[in-house]
Amino acid sequence: MENKTHLVDEITGHRRMRRNRKADWTRRLVQENRLTVDDLIWPIFIIPGSGILEPIPAMPGVNRMTVDKAVEAAKEAADLGIPALATFPNIEMELRDETGSNSLEKNNLINLASAAIKKAVPNIGVITDVALDPFTSHGHDGILRGNDIVNDETVEQVARAAVYQADAGADIIAPSEMMDGRIGAIRQALDAAGHQSVGIMSYATKFSSGFYGPYREAISTGGLLKGDKKTYYIDPANGTEAVRDAALDVEEGADMLMVKPGLPYLDICWRLKEAFGLPTFAYQVSGEYAMIKAAAANGWIDGDKVMLETLLAFKRAGCDGILTYFAVEVARQLARK
Ligand code: PBG
C-alpha cells in the first residue's frame, strides 16, 4: 500500500487532481462554468389562427402555436426569466411563392406575432429571422432564378423585410440566409428607417447540415426544398472559412454572432469568441434536440442530464448563450434548484 502510494506520488509529483473533486462542496467551489436562465433564447414556431397548439412529431415537447398562444408562451418565458424568444413562422402554402413575397407584407404572421408579444410582454426580447425560406415555394432561403439563389436581389429583399420586422417590434434581426453583404445592407436599411437601436445577431456561421431536418418539418419546408443549400451555407469541413465569413459580418456591423448547428461546431464557437470577442451564441438546432429526446425516450440516455451537459458545453466553449428548444424545460429546472 505504502509503496503504491509512493509510486503514484513519484509519477504525479504530488499533484493529485482528485483532491478538488472529492466532495460536492469542493466541486461546486471549483466549477468553472455555469448555466443560468440568462443564457437562454427560446425558438418558437408560429402558425395562423387562434387557440391552437400543434405538436411537432419529430420534436417531442415542442408545439407550433398561434399568435395568442405565443403571447401566453412569452409570458411564461418572461416569468421564468428567459431573456428572449426567436420566432419562426409556418405560413399557409398559398402564401408561399418563388420570391417569398409574403416576407414583405407588413402584417404577415411573423410581424403579427412580434407586435402581439411586445404589446403583452414588453420585457422579453424578440429576435426574428429574415431568411426567406418560410415564405418561398421552393424552401430556399433566397430568391431562386433558374438554378441560382441570387445573392444581391435577396439581400435587397431581406433588408426591406428587416425594416418591417423592426417596425412590428422585433428587437434583434437575425439573418440566417447566408447571403454575402447582408449584415451591412440590413444595418443601413434599419438605420435609414430610424431603427438605430435594433440589433443584428448574425447567423454568422451556418453550416450545410443534416441537423435541420425536424425544423423543416416544423415550418413545412422539408417537402418543398429543391436540391440543397450548399451554395450558400458553409461546408461542415471548413473552420477557417467560417472564421473569415464571420469576420465580414463583424466588419459590416453585426452586434452578436451565432454558430449553427451547435454541439458539432463547438470549435467554431471557441474560435469566433477568441477572434472577435463579440457576444457569441450557439443554436442547438432541431436535430440535436430530437436526438436527445429520442434517445431519452428509449431509455438509452438520461435526457435531463444530457440536456444540461450539452448546454453547459456551449458555455465552456465560450458561448454567451444558447438558442435551444429546451429553454423552458431548463429554466423550470434551474428555478427548482
Ligand atoms: C433557415 C433556417 C434553418 C433553421 C432555422 N432557419 C435551417 C434550414 O432549414 O436550412 C434551422 C433551425 C433548427 O434546425 O432548429 N433559414
The CATH superfamily title of the largest domain: Aldolase class I
The shape, in one word, is globular
Number of DSSP helical runs: 12
CATH C-level name of the largest domain: Alpha Beta
What's the architecture of the largest domain, going by CATH?
Alpha-Beta Barrel
Provide the list of bound ligands, each named once: ligand PBG
**Share of residues in helices:** 40-55%
Kindly state the mean pLDDT as a whole number? 96
Return the CATH topology of the largest domain. Answer: TIM Barrel
Looking at how many chains there are and whether they match, the oligomeric state comes to: single chain
- Tell me how many strands there are: 12
End-to-end distance: 42 Å
Helices and strands: which structural class?
alpha/beta
Description:
The protein is of the alpha/beta class and 337 residues long. The protein folds into 2 domains: 1-31, no CATH class; 36-336, TIM Barrel, CATH 3.20.20. The chain is built from 12 helices and 12 strands. It has helices at residues 2-12, 24-30, 67-80, 109-120, 151-168, 182-192, 213-218, 240-252, 266-276, 286-297, 303-316, 327-336, and strands at residues 40-47, 53-55, 63-66, 84-89, 125-129, 143-145, 148-150, 172-174, 199-206, 256-260, 280-284, 321-324. The strands form 2 sheets. Strands 1-4-5-8-9-10-11-12 form an 8-stranded parallel barrel, surrounded by 9 helices. Strands 6-7 form a two-stranded antiparallel ribbon. β6 and β7 (148-150) form a beta hairpin. The model has no long low-confidence stretch (mean pLDDT 96). The structure holds ligand PBG. Residues 129, 131, 133, 141, 176-177, 212, 215-216, 229, 285-286 line the site of ligand PBG.
